[in-house]
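Lab manual, section 2.4: Encoding a predicted structure.

Procedure: take the sequence of the chain (219 residues), apply the prediction step described in section 2.3, and record the output as structure tokens. A sample record is shown.
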Amino acid sequence: MSDTARKRSHFPKLLAVLGVGFLGLILVAIAGPTTPTNGTDATNALLNLDGHQYPAVVAYVDGTPISGADLAQRVFIVQHNPHVVGDPSQFNAEQIALEQLIVESVLLKSANGVGVTVSEQEAADYALARQNAILNGDDPIARDRYAATAAQMGVQPQDLASDPRTIESYRQGMLLGRMYDHVLGNLPENQRNNTTAFEAAIRSFVDQHAKDIQILIQP
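Recorded output:
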């Protein structure tokens, strides 16, 4: 990790958002209540974020850009899930969001090198299971979000799980989850329930595997 990134980064409590891009809010909806309560409005708000308030690129991780649009969407997700990180007025959503995106980029880039994989079939099966849980579940907000996402992508809700874009998004989300498990599994057994130890392990992994992180904004 670059000196600049190391000085700025303190890695706050990590969010369990197993999904990227347009599926982030849907997956968060499964985890618990969010605000605003109108699922369609919330999803459309997320999908229509273009990151105009940020530069086109806000950071580079070993040459791979993190876009302003990605940051805007993640900030939205952080801000609308206070049950995960606490009182929104007590944390810097931009900093949390950017640090998450950096950590996730490093983990995903490093997955193959440490033998962590997710097949397309695994992702497709999981996408279908999640779709069935949402469409057949008793949470109307989650169903609204799912339908709004399908509409934005030009497909019917029942066809969203089989869309290649959906499958790839879930594949990356699952891969990220397995990378977190990989880091956790390398901790001594008596430290695996210790949040501080886990965050330190994530920080160490990033330091070891990222050659150059350039942060172009001050969150």
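Check your result against the sample. The mean pLDDT is 78.
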